[in-house]
Amino acid sequence: MSPAGAAGGAGSAGGAGSAGGLTMVDPAGRVVPVNELPAPGGPPSVDLPTPHRALAVGAHPDDIEFGCGGTLAKWAAHGCEIHLLVLTDGAKGSWDPAQDPEALVAVRQEEQRRAAAILGSAAVTFLGLPDGELRNGIREQWEVCRVIRSVQPDVVLGHDPWRRYRLHPDHRNAGFVLTDALVAARDPHFFPEQELAPHRPDALLLWEADVVNHVETVEGHEGTKVTALLAHRSQHRSTMGIGDRPGGGDDGGHDGFRRRVLAQLVGHGDLAGVSAGESFHLLTDL
Fold it and tell me: For position 32, what pLDDT does the model report?
């Protein structure tokens, strides 16, 4: 599901999210989604310096746009080199039982390339692992480690594997593959046959964070995030709730989806007192 459960679900064949969900009142009196309270000890930090190079790792095509599309668009606009890594082929991302999986894979890769270009990136790597079957194994860690060492990112972004009650196994395992691969990438005795220099990023940002301790301001880049998400046309019905209501209606179309995404960005920004944001758990001791 998306960070606040309001902008649809980022995944393969999961259902569309709703604007509802469990909420609670934070110490400042604001109503926020459960699991999106700031970490104890103070308000979240705001805005890392724009990195020279960033790598975002998602389980499926469209996960990255849901999780950090506004942040990547902002950084790209300020000169950051953006790289995307998509772990699975997205072959199960349809509610149509007659959908040909191989054809869907080709469609979703093209959609991902289009979305990446909208965000400001031409660099997309597809591992092509089977959708719904992602595991945190040595093979997967090897592949992600290789990409980290090749790209040499200053900041890495990915799924929070520790988010409670996460149902989709690919999202959990994508987070753990990434965190384990980061350990491997920094240490020369992991996978020396790669013949690549070890690399230790400066920061890791985990989206859909179980405990938020950092917010990136995305004011001015909200529209780019929405446009990049809408590039994933194959996911409009199953993931975004677009066109799934008989007779149409505003809430069943693009406008309703756009409003839900923008409302989510406002909610994340409220956690740090900014007008629009994307929330994360930030780790710098890598």
Answer: 53
Could you give the angle at which helices 138-151 and 169-186 cross, rounded to 10 degrees? 60
Residues 6+ apart with CB under 8 A from 1: 9, 10, 11, 14, 17, 168, 208
Q: How many Å apart are CA 47 and CA 39, to the nearest integer?
A: 16
pLDDT in tens, 93-104: 988 898 999 999
DSSP state of 38: B
Tokens of 281: 């758990």
Longest dimension (CA), the chain: 60
Domains and CATH numbers, the chain: 49-283 (3.40.50.10320)
Helix (H) or strand (E) run with residue 172 in it: helix 169-186
Give the CA distances from residue 124 to residues 56, 61, 183, in Å, rounded to whole numbers and listed in that order: 10, 10, 22
Lowest mean pLDDT of 2-11, 119-128, 154-163, name the range.
2-11
